[in-house]
Amino acid sequence: MIGENAYAALWLNAVVGFESRKIARFSALGYPPERIRYETRDFVKKFAKVIDADAERELLDGLDRGQIERISEDLDQLDMGFVVAEDFAFPERLRQIADPPACLYYRGDLALLKSKSLAVVGTRNPTRYGKEVTENFVKALSGLYTIVSGMARGIDAIAHREALRSGGKTIAVLGSGIDRPYPSEHVDLYHEIAKRGLVVSEYGLNTGVQQYRFPQRNRIISGLSRGVLVTEAGEKSGSLITAEYAVEQGKELFVVPSAVTNPRGTGTNRLLVKYPAAITITPDAVAEGLGDAPCTKPPAPMQLDYNEAMIREALVYREMHFEELLMLTGLGVSALTSLLTQMEMLGIIKKLDHNYYGV
């Protein structure tokens, strides 16, 4: 069962077909859901130009409590819920944005809406560098913040998965109906987030995918968060829209620079030209920028022997192939393999693709 104050909003959204954003705009114009419900004919007359025929018919038919109860029961059976902006559970920081949603559908731990959170977004096609940066930052920061993202391919999915893997919490903001996880290959991720975190959407049951909804949902990703971290973004990445929303909403913006030769990092580098103070190279800089204590511990000092120190120093400057390390150290294949394996297990170096190594 939903509270009385949500009936009118659920009717407008799920029956009449007004998207949450539209309901909020009518409210700002002096027609909140309850007023529309009781002054339907006056409302239809006043806003006839922006109401289509199907919506007008549903409005004039009026609110059917039985129909709303059935929708509420459907949500309950799917282990989902619905909150409106007037509800206590609705986060104050989301109410304060310029274009707030009037309602949110949810699945999972609703209390996370009010948790200390950080948005992590980026390209759908990350490089290995972007993937590693995202994993490293989220691993360090998920102990302090609920990680918010859009469950898209690439950086979004990496951020959600790393937050869960690190024992943290995460919120996925959908650009489709609350029961329509997108993309389809993220169905398992959707269920894992719903089980251990929270999935939210301003779009109700059976709302299909429309391209315009994804940029719209980005205002909610930033709105829920204290800050937005962009780890890697191309020239036309949707994460750049989230970054601009963060600036408009007065949120902290953090941007990790990319190599100028990396086309998938063009967007992040352009952001840094526009917002140079957003440059971020460590997770601690994010925590400190949000007014929190550093989130990483300094590594314990490690005593390296001659060959270990030589390899470590060489890899600081560039990645090297196994054959190059053979020439550098003068060791045999077996001895070098054993040494590199030991250094990798200690976290000093890492093995890369095609038999290359890096720090």
Automatic annotation (TrEMBL):
Superkingdom: Bacteria
All copies of domain DprA winged helix, residue ranges: 297-351
Domain Smf/DprA SLOG: 82-288
Biological processes annotated in GO: DNA-mediated transformation
NCBIfam families assigned: dprA (TIGR00732)
Family to which the UniProt record says this protein belongs: Belongs to the DprA/Smf family.
Protein name according to UniProt: DNA-protecting protein DprA
Species, as recorded: Candidatus Stercoripulliclostridium merdipullorum
Lineage: Bacteria, Bacillati, Bacillota, Clostridia, Eubacteriales
